[in-house]
Write a structure and sequence with these properties.
With 350 residues, the protein is an alpha/beta fold. The protein has a single domain, classed as Deoxyhypusine synthase (Deoxyhypusine Synthase, 3-Layer(aba) Sandwich). Helices cover 45% and strands 12% of the residues. Helix 12 links the parallel strand 7 and strand 8.
Length: 350
């Protein structure tokens, strides 16, 4: 029988039940075992890493990785991108500002020029760093030092160029990213070759900017026009929806945006589906140095729930993205990584 008692001094508190039933002892001597050979395991020797000689090629490096967890997913993602591009499908790179701040612009431009990514989407901070790198070859402020005297974010050239680009885009009915890329090319800036937006404009692929009003430094400038910025970024949202409408069996990669881009992507995808486009069966990847809620649910899980695959690859942008770029370039062959891993490691040809 169980009896109910109240906690002392808490007449209206929760009821606590005490049982008088005897608890029987367990006898470990009676535990049943089975042979190891009869039980499944997730890891086998043919998935192990292999040592490399000092002069190993990148092909040999990727073949030497352990075929488990993130190493497996990195190569699966690279293979998905190569497969999609060979079939003429969309490969969309979305990102925040940090990848540009850590020097990945030239690598992203190279991937655009070789046709790996055929659409780009960024937040507002990314276009700021892209401009400063194209204009001056340097970016990224000491926020604390500038905040003390109010000089943070007040670089005149940055505000004038980008706010004027927003006004031009609003006046012409164009997207923010397209006009930024066009004007960077027209100005023939010293470092424009490594500008993601200039590169996208020259190649002729969509590059969109998704602004949160009040979140970017140029919104503090006298030249800022909220109506123009809103019109320019709204045009880019609609352009992104058109891009995402063609994502079926393609690939989307979110590189380092924790909030803005995952939210914008989800709405663009929903709008495309609402208008009758069957956007399913695509691969989605989130690459960041920590895992966040919105990229997980808004890029990896909800969009691929009815078909597709999600990859969460965690690590520093300046290490993981160059690895992905190299893996894409390496000839992976017609066989999947899994099939390659079944071959014996000793003496394996790369």
């Amino acid at each position: 029988m169980a009896r109910a008692d109240r906690r002392a001094g808490s007449p209206d508190g929760p009821t606590i039940f005490h049982t008088e039933a005897r608890i029987k002892n367990l006898d470990p001597a009676r535990a049943r075992t089975r042979s190891l050979a009869s039980l499944p395991r997730k890891v086998a020797r043919n998935q192990f890493a292999a040592p490399l000689p000092p002069d190993a090629t990148m092909r040999a490096f990727f073949a030497s990785l352990p075929d488990v967890l993130a190493a497996h997913d990195l190569l699966e993602l690279a293979d998905s991108i190569r497969t999609a591009r060979r079939a003429g499908r969309l490969c969309l790179l979305m990102m925040g500002a940090h990848p540009l701040k850590v020097g990945l612009g030239p690598l992203i431009c190279d991937l655009i020029r070789q046709g790996t990514f055929n659409a780009i989407a960024t937040n507002g901070a990314a276009v700021i760093h892209d401009f400063e790198l194209a204009f001056a070859g340097r970016t990224s402020e000491d926020v604390g030092a500038g905040l003390a005297d109010g000089s943070f974010g007040m670089a005149a050239e940055t505000g004038i160029f980008l706010n004027n680009a927003a006004k031009t885009a609003a006046r012409e009915g164009c997207g923010f990213g397209e006009v930024v890329g066009r004007e960077l090319v027209r100005e023939n800036l010293k470092f424009a070759r490594d500008s993601v937006f200039a590169c996208a404009f020259e190649v002729g692929i969509p590059a969109t900017v998704h602004v949160t009003l009040g979140a970017d430094i140029i919104h503090m400038h006298p030249s800022a026009d909220g109506a123009a910025i809103g019109a320019a970024t709204m045009a880019d949202f609609r352009r992104l929806a058109i891009v995402v409408a063609g994502l079926a069996r393609g690939v989307v990669v979110n590189l380092g945006s924790a909030v803005v881009i995952p939210e914008v992507f989800l709405k663009a995808l929903n709008l495309a589906r609402n208008l009758g486009r069957r956007v399913t069966g695509f691969s989605a990847a989130d690459m960041d140095f920590i895992r966040h809620y919105r990229p997980r649910v808004n890029i990896l899980e909800r969009p691929t729930d009815k078909g597709g695959r999600g990859f969460a690859i965690t690590g520093h942008h300046e290490i993981m993205f160059p690895l992905l770029a190299a893996a894409i370039r390496v000839e992976l062959g017609r066989h999947s990584r899994r099939a390659e891993a079944r071959s014996p490691r000793p003496g394996r040809k790369h």
